[in-house]
């Protein structure tokens, strides 16, 4: 009985370490409703609204009205991209709500 308890305890401990070793990420959707096509788009992720960047994902060209997915466990993000003239575009820091977010024209800073 002690041996069986020891084996189950050991298995439980191993499973706990395995499940905590990888950061759980999920697919989240961002929609570009800014009226501007984004080129060389980067999505930068944050833990908090005012925190520093904790990584990024390239998204390429995103046309107005287009949605795309990113893979992250973080709740906040902002967009860095260029417009058709090569001018840099920055969005405000936005939050995913139920795994979705929309970037509108009022969120874009040139």
| Fraction in helix | 10-25%
Overall, the morphology is: elongated
The count of domains is: 1
Low-pLDDT runs: none
CATH topology: Immunoglobulin-like
Order of helices and strands: HEEEEEEEEE
Question: Can you tell me about this structure?
Answer:
This protein is an alpha+beta fold and 110 residues long. It has a single domain, classed as Sandwich (Immunoglobulin-like). The chain contains one helix and nine strands. The protein has one helix at 2-21; strands at 26-33, 38-46, 53-62, 67-72, 76-82, 88-91, 94-95, 100-104, 108-109. Strands 2, 3, 5, 6, 7 and 9 form a six-stranded antiparallel beta sheet that branches. The termini are far apart. Keywords: Signal. Residues 1-21 form the signal peptide.
Mind sketching the topology for me?
Layout: H1 2-21, E1 26-33, E2 38-46, E3 53-62, E4 67-72, E5 76-82, E6 88-91, E7 94-95, E8 100-104, E9 108-109
Key features of this structure:
9 strands; signal; Lipoprotein; alpha+beta; 110 residues; single chain; 18% helix; 1 helix
């Amino acid at each position: 009985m002690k041996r069986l308890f020891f084996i189950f305890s050991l298995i439980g401990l191993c499973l706990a370490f395995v499940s905590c070793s990888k950061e759980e990420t999920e697919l989240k959707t961002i929609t570009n409703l800014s009226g501007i096509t984004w080129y060389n788009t980067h999505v930068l992720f944050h833990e908090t609204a005012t925190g520093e960047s904790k990584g990024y994902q390239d998204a390429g060209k995103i046309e107005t009205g287009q949605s795309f997915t990113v893979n992250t466990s973080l709740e906040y993000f902002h967009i860095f991209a260029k417009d058709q003239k090569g001018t840099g575009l920055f969005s405000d820091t936005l939050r995913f709500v139920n795994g979705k977010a929309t970037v509108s024209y009022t969120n874009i800073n040139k």
